[in-house]
Amino acid sequence: MNIRGFKFLVEASIINVQIGVQFNCKIQVILKRGSSKLETQPTYELRKGLAIINESLNFSISVSLGLDGKFEDKKTQIIVILVTEKGQKNAGMHNLNISQYLNQQQFEFQEALPLEKCPDKNAKVLVDFKIKQIGEIDQELETTDQSLDISQVSIYTPNKILQESKNEYSDKVQQNYLRHKEVRL
């Protein structure tokens, strides 16, 4: 059972792709979540195994916080595509769970993500991530503010939210007990 939900804006700045291939090509990076996908331009030259990208892909996620104090999984795929005159070829991918960073309270970080299913076992994509809370999701109402000044927002940690939920539940139980006690008298 989920107890509370939050909406986050994730900015993934693709810094570069490092991959060893023996032919001329360009690189494109795709970020895929479910049926939605974001793509960089397919124009980044691969030179001596390095393609400098420096392009940001932004998306929002809604995440529920479980009773265990952990955010539910939010999986994202990062796919690297080789673009040649003959067409496109999948060069590799990396499965990423954004919630692992939320659970560790990491909101700004850089990752060198190794590419899976890639002929070059040392291939990786370097990404800067910035995650900002932009709203809270209530069971009945969702509130977001795209112009939110993040310095004015207090970020709830999973433990803080869990404690608040326990306190609210305890208050409700106590109120119900007192109400039933009054009825019996």
From TrEMBL:
Pfam families named in the record: NT-C2 (PF10358)
Task: Cite the InterPro entries for this sequence.
Answer: NT-C2 (IPR019448)
Which PROSITE patterns does the record cross-reference, listed alphabetically?
C2_NT
Record-annotated C2 NT-type domain positions: 1-133
- Can you name this protein? C2 NT-type domain-containing protein
Organism, by scientific name, is Paramecium octaurelia
